[in-house]
Specification:
- This protein is about 55% helix and about 10% strand.
- By secondary structure, the chain is an alpha/beta fold.
- A five-stranded mixed β-sheet has the order 3-4-5-6-7, with helices on both faces. It has a two-stranded parallel ribbon with strand order 1-2.
- It is elongated and about 60 Å long.
- The two termini are about 35 Å apart.
- It binds NADP nicotinamide-adenine-dinucleotide phosphate.
- NADP nicotinamide-adenine-dinucleotide phosphate binds next to α4.
Amino acid sequence: MGTAIARTLLRAGLVVTVFNRTKAKAEALTGEGAQVAPTVASALRASPLAVLCVADYPAAHGLVDGSDVQAALHGVRVVHLSTGTPLQARAFALAMDRAGAGYLDGAILVTPSQIGTPGSALLVAGKEEHFRATAPTLRMIGAQLYYVGEDPGSAAALDLAFLSHFFGGLLGFYHGARIMEAENLPVTKLGEMIESVAPALGAIVHADARRIAADQYDNPESSLGNSATVVELIRAHAMERNLDLRFPEFSTNLFRAGLKAGHAKRDVAALMRVLRAVNGGSR
Ligand SMILES: NC(=O)c1ccc[n+]([C@@H]2O[C@H](COP(=O)([O-])OP(=O)(O)OC[C@H]3O[C@@H](n4cnc5c(N)ncnc54)[C@H](OP(=O)(O)O)[C@@H]3O)[C@@H](O)[C@H]2O)c1
């Protein structure tokens, strides 16, 4: 991801200095015009804006630990794009604040090959003045740039919420792919169909979000009771075909809990009340 970001900024005509723990990866960019810094501190001293993207927050802390790096951070705007939890992001923001850096915490919503393309998307959080100052550069990385708010943990929170939807959807898709295989149908057909109905599915999710925000599940378009019947059919099919039962059982367990809690005639999003129960029902 770091290579893709550096390459995109170089192609946009910026002066880019790169550092990577494994030097060969940084050196691979020299042919494209990058300057290679021998240390993190020298990389920070080279530019008023530093983009940091490594495996995780512990790795990022390790990179900025030394006193020379702490000194070099002073007055630099740092945009940190490693994936983490909101707590990790807030702790890193505090460390950057103490070092005198202007900090934005961000999250990347696309793959390296999509960086800088019109569909690329980036979330950022932190002080608005830093967002305003860095937005033109950040849009080169993520054309769709979302400013989430001043709380430095908020981009990581939105990212994890988005990833929950993404990976939850993928798990359902993989079970769907097993249904296709079991019935001798091409999995590509399922992929093609999901892509074509994606806007309509997105609209359903958006409508659900409004119901959840209002905590209002009456007059459903699709009741939890009817949806639970369909989910039981997915489980029944898995039993018929001897498919892995983990995804159907996970789903039926949640839907059965919704029915048990008396939500059959409410919208399927009333499952939120089941999910909130573990926190005493609070939002
Ligand atoms: N790839 C994606 O599709 C994608 C999408 C969205 C977000 N992200 C996020 O972007 C971040 C980077 O992902 P990636 O795909 O680039 O992962 P990656 O290919 O595994 O690269 C990890 C980077 O972190 C460095 N690193 C790891 N541990 C380190 C340590 N202890 N000290 C110093 N450097 C360390 C690695 O350095 P070396 O080269 O020396 O190993 C490498 O530069 C992750 O937080 C990931 O969740 C990735």
